[in-house]
Amino acid sequence: MVKFVFASVRVFSLASQDNSTPDLSNSFGAKRIVVYSSDGCHKCAVLKDWLRNVNTHFEERSLENVDVMAELVMRDVVVLSAPVLEVDNSVYTETEFFEGNTLSVNRLQGILGGNGNGRR
User: Fold this and answer.
1) Dihedral sign, CA of 70, 19, 48, 103?
2) pLDDT (0 to 100) of residue 28
3) Is residue 67 part of a domain?
4) Which of 6, 18, 22, 119 could form a Cys-Cys staple with 110, CB 3.0–4.6 A?
5) What digits encode the pLDDT tens for the residues 77-95?
6) Which residues have CB under 8 Å from 24's CB, separation 6+?
7) Nearest-5° angle of CA 22, CA 28, CA 30?
8) pLDDT value at position 80?
9) Is 49 among the domain residues?
10) For residue 104, is it within any domain?
């Protein structure tokens, strides 16, 4: 049995997925939001806490789960550092919504607002 251990995650390439999962209602409209995280990840905890504080519903998936990683690979998403944020069919790396170790609320709000460039 092969066991994968992922200490950090970064996305290299993206592919679209089908819309078979229903949208989740949240403060940023009816968007499907998924947070890919790993245990003990400080940035993951910061991101999830912020989303909860602004009443944004999200699905959480563990990057330590082999099935989750296999699904990402099948979608041509290669993850090297956590957290990774998926909004509808777009995937964002932590460098797109963190500045160093600090969450960039403006960038994150832009991503969640739908323009995808981190600015509203």
Assistant:
1) positive
2) 63
3) yes
4) 119
5) 988 899 999 999 899 999 9
6) 30, 31, 32, 33, 57, 58, 59
7) 20
8) 86
9) yes
10) yes
Name the DSSP class of 40.
T
Tell me what pLDDT residue 23 has.
Answer: 38
Residues 63, 29: contact at Cβ < 8 Å? no
The C-alpha atoms of residue 37 and residue 44 are separated, in whole angstroms, by: 6
- Beta pairing partners, 83: none
Please give, one letter per residue, the 3-state secondary structure of 51-110: HHHCCCCCEEEECCCHHHHHHHHHCCCCCCCCCEEEECCEEEEHHHCEECCEECHHHHHH
What's the pLDDT tens digit per position in 26-74?
556 678 999 999 999 999 999 999 999 999 999 999 999 999 999 999 9
Asked if residue 10 has pLDDT above 90, the reply is no
pTM: 0.72
- List the domain range (segments joined by +) for residue 70: 44-113
Rama region for 62: left / alpha / beta (φ>0; ψ in -120 to 50; rest): beta
- Record the tokens describing residue 22, joined without a space: 């229903």
- Domain count of the fold of the chain: 1
